[in-house]
Each structure stands twice: as structure tokens, then as C-alpha cells.
Amino acid sequence: MARSAAIALFSAALLSVVVVAMFRWVPVPVTAFMIRDSVPDQQHDWVPWSAISRHAAAAVIAAEDQKFLEHDGFDFEAIDKAMTDAKRGRRLRGASTISQQVAKNLFLWPGQSWVRKGLEAWFTLWIELLWPKQRILEVYLNSAEFGRGIWGVEAASRHYFGEPAAKLTRPEAALLAAVLPNPKRYRVSNPSPFVRQRQDWILWQMRMLGGAGLLRTLDEAPPPAAP
């Protein structure tokens, strides 16, 4: 019995690594979150990195994970601050990196259980080991939710601004990134004062981080070799 369980566990772990490796090159047609929150007329259009405005990439880094290009999947300083705030009874703050959010969006479900967090760490580890940073950003921008039933930056750009993601301006990219903490509550269309304030903050952070220029190293990197 124990041997069978060990074999099953090993097989599941191996399969998960194979799937992560496959998605380094293969477009992600659907994610676990898309399936869970499926709504009529769901919008999602996968586009490659070359068809995404660098302003969009810079905006999500500024908004969600400013150490993205430096860490290996986990921001331990942010995790430590979040744990300290929780112990002091303060509002729970997010500490997930973009890599962790990709792992969660693609393979898991919402929640704070230890099992889910453990699986998130497992997938994040392999994503960081097997994917270049450019690919992680590409998948994130194609799988993030920007409104009810609106998945990915291409669908969001066309829905809200009537243009492809390649043509997003800095303010438009910052406005999309401003709703990411809770896209079901915050709106790109008719944004609240809070969303506008967050948009302005993201624009400022983009300038401080160097704007789209901070991604130059990713653009100059050679494409991943075929398996």
C-alpha cells in the first residue's frame, strides 16, 4: 500500500514537471482559474511576447512584483513583512510574486490552505527553473484576470480600449495593472477614485524603475532553445 502510494506520488510529481516544461514553449489555452470562474462570453486571446506592449509588462512589475527580475520566485522580505503584520493583527498583505501568481493561476485554486501553498511553492520552483523570466511575464500577462470573464492583456486591451495589446500606452497599461489585486471589485471602465490613485502610483513606480527600459535585458536575451 505504501509502495503504491509512493509510486502514485512520484508519478504525479513527474507529470507536473513535464507539464510545466511543456508550457515553456506551448501557449496556455486555458487555466485552472478560467475553468473555475467560467462565465458566458468569456474573453481570452493568447498573444506572444512580441505582440505585447512593453508598457504592460513594466506596469505589472511596478504594481505586483518590483523585484521580479532579481528573485528566484519568492520574495522572502515581503513574506517576512506579511507574517509580521499578521502577527500584529494588521490587514493581511499580499506577498506573492508574479511567478507564484502564474503557478496559482495555471494549476491551482484560490485559498490559503497549507496544501495549496505547498503546491504553489512546488510549481513556482519548477517554473523558475525551467522558464526564462520573459516567458513567465508572457504567461502572466496572457492569463491574468482584468475583469469578469476578461482574461489576458490582449482581450482586456481590445475590450476596454479597442486596440491590441501591442498598442497599449503607459496610462492604459497602468490602469489595467491597477485592478489586478481584485479585478472583480475594481473596474477598468468607470474606475473609482481608488483605482485612479493606484494608476497614478503605478505610473510613478514605472518611472522610478526605468519604465519599459527595465525589460531591455529580456528583449535582448536569446529565445529559448527547442527541447
Question: Can you give a write-up of this model?
Answer:
A hairpin with a 2-residue loop joins strand 2 and strand 3. This protein starts with a helix and ends in a 7-residue tail after the last helix. The protein has a single domain, classed as Orthogonal Bundle (Penicillin binding protein transpeptidase fold), CATH 1.10.3810. The C terminus is likely disordered. Helix 1 packs across helix 6 and helix 3 packs across helix 10. With 227 residues, the chain is mainly α. It has eleven helices and three strands; from the N terminus they run H-H-E-H-H-H-H-H-E-E-H-H-H-H. The chain has a three-stranded mixed β-sheet, with helices on one face.
Largest sheet at a glance?
A: 3 strands, mixed
- Tell me the Rg in angstroms: 18 Å
Q: Give the termini separation.
A: 36 Å
Count every beta strand, where a strand is a DSSP E run of 2 or more residues: 3
Alpha-beta classification:
mainly alpha
Q: Indicate the CATH architecture.
A: Orthogonal Bundle
How helical, in percent, are the residues? 55-70%
The figure for the number of domains is 1
